[in-house]
Inverse folding.
């Protein structure tokens, strides 16, 4: 313990002596957590719509008013030429085209039906799909309004109808920030822990101080613990700031489940994560190599962890890779505890898997660290 105490004193002095490093560890993650959830918005609004109106009737104007009043669409162009509207799409000034045919109102009144044409710019598949779905829902609602006006009330009520009532559990108002903030917090803690821990040993290799440590009687596990514990403590501090300051006071997110359970998993996760950083540092000889290797893993962790897309919708090979990432399990656990209030019985498999990651990565790092005399 005496040896470990001196190693920890040395590590903390090195960390806090570096004035350029301190803002990257303590300030940048907080700023990122403030900004990123505002950009990672699942709602798509202000979709540029170009309308080609060949009818110019009262019903056509009512439909256009209903579309623009929805808040999802911005009227980018209004005219009677489809070619002109298509040019707006080619210039990326419009995302959708709605063409209202001539005789729209007359055919609705006489024939009781009419067709509308919707053209969607599908380069951005997500925006195209949602934009088309929003527009179809608005037109369907407008169609129901017309039916209510024309059809006698008693006849309309006599028609068989199925009513669906939806109940949104755990996120009643479908606030995407409740879903995104915990996941982004996990990624930020992962980035700080993995980068700082991986660069720490490599920096000593470059400056030559690692050779001075190697000739001392310090054992390998003591050296690894001395490198791991400072960033373990820093990781807990960053997570606490993000959870209790940013998430709670800025976004109004209060954990539903047990904080003790959440922090218990965090402690094991940080051991596994820092073990990965230590393992990378044993392979890299320069900080540039360590940063490149760490960046490779961080990108995979971010895009294949379920942060933005559900891993169940991925191809089988991608699903298996995602399940080999410790970040995937921690994002699931944070969301389950914070949003659902899940207990230990729901998370015991996640605890076992993360403990396995911690033993594997740290054991590998200790074995791979070659202490030469």
């Amino acid at each position: 313990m005496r040896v470990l105490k001196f190693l920890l004193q040395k590590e903390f002095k090195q960390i806090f002596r570096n004035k350029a490093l301190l803002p990257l560890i303590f300030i940048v993650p907080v700023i990122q957590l403030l900004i990123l959830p505002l950009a990672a918005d699942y709602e798509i609004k202000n979709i540029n719509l170009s309308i080609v109106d060949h009818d110019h009737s009262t019903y056509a104007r009512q439909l256009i008013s209903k579309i623009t009043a929805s808040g999802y669409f911005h009227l980018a162009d209004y005219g009677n030429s489809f070619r002109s509207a298509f040019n707006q799409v080619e210039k990326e000034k419009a995302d959708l085209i709605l063409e209202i045919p001539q005789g729209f109102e007359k055919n609705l009144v006489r024939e009781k039906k009419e067709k509308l044409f919707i053209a969607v710019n599908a380069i951005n598949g997500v925006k195209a799909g949602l934009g088309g779905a929003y527009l179809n829902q608005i037109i369907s609602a407008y169609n129901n309004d017309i039916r209510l006006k024309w059809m006698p009330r008693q006849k309309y009520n006599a028609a068989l109808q199925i009513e669906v009532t939806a109940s949104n559990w755990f996120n009643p108002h479908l606030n995407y920030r409740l879903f995104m903030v915990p996941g982004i917090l996990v990624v930020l803690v992962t980035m700080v822990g993995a980068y700082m821990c991986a660069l720490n040993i490599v920096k000593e290799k470059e400056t030559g101080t690692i050779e001075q440590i190697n000739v001392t009687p310090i054992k390998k596990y003591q050296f690894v613990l001395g490198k791991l514990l400072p960033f373990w403590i820093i990781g807990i501090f960053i997570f606490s700031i993000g959870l209790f300051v940013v998430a709670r006071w800025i976004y109004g997110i209060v954990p539903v489940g047990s904080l003790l359970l959440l922090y218990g998993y965090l402690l094991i996760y940080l051991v596994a994560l820092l073990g990965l950083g230590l393992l990378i540092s044993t392979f890299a000889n320069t900080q540039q190599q360590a940063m490149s290797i760490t960046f490779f893993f961080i990108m995979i962790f971010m895009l294949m962890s379920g942060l933005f897309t559900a891993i169940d919708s991925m191809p089988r090979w991608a699903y298996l890779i995602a399940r080999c990432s410790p970040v995937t399990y921690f994002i699931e656990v944070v969301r389950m505890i914070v949003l659902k209030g899940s207990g230990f019985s729901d998370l015991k498999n996640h605890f076992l898997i993360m403990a396995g990651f911690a033993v594997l990565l740290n054991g590998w790092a200790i074995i791979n660290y070659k202490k030469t005399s």
Observations:
- The chain has two domains: 2-40+174-368, 47-158.
- Residues 47-158 form a domain with the abc type-2 transporter like fold fold (CATH 3.40.1710.10).
- The longest strand covers residues 47-53.
- The beta strands are 47-53, 73-79, 96-100, 117-120.
